Amino acid sequence: MHKVSFFKSIHVKLVLIYVLLIIIALQIIGLYFSSNIEENLKANFQESISQRIDLVQYSIREEMLKERDDTAPTLEQSLSVILREFTTSDINEIRIVDNRNKVIATSDTDNQAIVGQRFNDDIVTKSISAGTFWEEIALDPDTKNRVWVLSKPILNTVGPNGEVIGAIYIESNIEKVFEQMNDINGIFAVGTAMSLVITVVLGILIAKTITKPIIDMRRQAQAMSRGNFSRKVRVYGDDEIGQLAIAFNHLTNRLQEATSTTEAERRKLSSVLSNMTDGVIATDRKGKVILINDPALNFLDVTRETSLNRPITSVLGLDQEYSFEDLIYMKESVNLNFSTEEKPLILRANFSVIQKETGFVNGFITVLHDITEQEKIEMERREFVANVSHELRTPLTTMRSYLEALADGAWRDENIAPTFLNVTQTETERMIRLVNDLLNLSKMDSRDYKLNREFVEFNKFFNRIIDRFEMSKSQNVKFIRYIPEATYFVDIDTDKLTQVIDNIISNALKYSPDGGNIRFGFTVQDQMLKVMVSDDGMGIPKENVNRIFDRFYRVDRARSRAMGGTGLGLAIAKEMIEAHGGRIWAESEEGIGTTIFFTLPYEIDEAGDWD
């Protein structure tokens, strides 16, 4: 989270707002105060001047109406004396003008030249002609100061009509009032500045008390975003911000618990998805892959990067057959065949929709289960049933034919009857062998058997079996032995291993041509005895070599059945060898011959303890 700039800080904003409010309030108060003070000062000044005018007006009127003789002072002298008495510092000049606009007296000693001259000022003219009071604030052209100019008519109160006999013209220095206002405004400005400084300091302190808990909560939120829930916001009081800090700390605790629970569930889910053998694919509501576990990646042979954000129909290879909407309403599983020449792979895909309570599709889950082995077992089961049915049907059909012939009277023929009975007996023995082999395989599949193990010298054991076959063989076949002189002991069930070797040698004899060779031998390889039986028979096609140990499998079915084979001998041999901890396999080249190998754990006689 980036750092908040200075001017965007809530601390600065609070101080600025606080100061602006104070400035606005002071401006409003200052304007109101200054306006009223100015009006009051002007009113007081004008009232003071007006009161003095009223006082001097009476004396001036008496002097102007007074009859004079030669011994009395002239009117101008008398008025000059009166004007000098009433002249003060706030009055610049007082002029007495008669009703013909002639100046008859002035208080300005330096301006006595205007006495006797006409004074054509508009205010005086209006005042005399209208008989009313006139006033205005004007600008002194010499000093550039504001002056209050007024003209008040002098009325003759003795006459019946109260005629105007003159006017008093006064120029008063009202600039002093404005100077007083400037002084007052200056004092107010200094007070305002001082109050603003105090206000800023107080604003900073007050804003700090508000913003400090908020800054702490901001830092805590940043720490929480990084997964650190150990910090706590300090509570500075019990006000709203204090209650917010308490609630924030409580939220931190709850969020820590929820995060821990979520993390634990996530780890459980991750562990389950990683360790389960089934593949799991999750999509968003648009059908694009958002999660895929390792088994699914292995099944589909894709990488996580190429799978994420791709449509699930494309990932599963179903885009030609189904759309995402089709999969949403899919109730049954779908089998997917990803088999290759090297490896068979059949998957069963089960689909599940994630929906909200409103029915809105929020996602999609696909579970992939490897059913390759199941399908293989099912196919083998079907093939096994078909093979058993076929193997049993052939001798039964033969027996039924011969028995029907005997029942029809062939038993009376002394030449035919014994032959028919001999065939029937042969087929019966063949079915008995088949059933016995099936029972043996069934016991091995169910592990319902026990190996009667004993330590035997394998050299003698193997030679004894070879000797038995060599003495009883009817074909012109030569036995060649490659058996080492060192003595090796094996822990085996002699009956079962004898059955295995008998089966292998019997097959070698069956498929060996006259004049051929059968080779026997064993070597030591990887702590195991590697036993070999090889013939010069017709061999097995390369593509069928690995199938000769399957149940009922025959390379040449007609010839095998004619030789009385059941097709289960090598399957039984494989089960027996694996039960002894070894393995069995074949190597063959068509037209040249076949070699059967199997391995067994062994012990070597180093000190003669086995004698």
Structural features, described:
This protein is of the alpha+beta class and 611 residues long. The protein has four domains: 11-181, PAS domain (Beta-Lactamase); 279-370, Beta-Lactamase, CATH 3.30.450; 376-444, Helix Hairpins; 451-603, Heat Shock Protein 90. The protein is 49% helix and 19% strand. It is built from 15 helices and 18 strands. The strands form four sheets. It has a five-stranded antiparallel sheet with strand order 2-1-5-4-3, with helices on both faces. A hairpin with a 6-residue loop joins strand 3 (134-139) and strand 4. Helix 1 (10-65) packs antiparallel against helix 2 (75-86). Residues 557-564 have low confidence and may be disordered.
**What would you give as the CATH superfamily of the largest domain?**
PAS domain
What is the terminal-to-terminal distance? Answer: 85 Å
The share of residues in extended strands comes to 15-25%
Number of E strands: 18
The class by helix and strand makeup works out as alpha+beta
Cα gyration radius (Å)? 65 Å
**Helical proportion, percent range:** 40-55%
Q: Largest beta sheet: what is the strand line-up?
A: 2-1-5-4-3
The major β-sheet equals: 5 strands, antiparallel
Taking pLDDT < 50 over at least 5 consecutive residues as the criterion, the unreliable ranges are: 557-564
The CATH topology name of the largest domain reads Beta-Lactamase
CATH class of the largest domain: Alpha Beta
**Name of the CATH architecture of the largest domain:** 2-Layer Sandwich
Outline type: rod-shaped
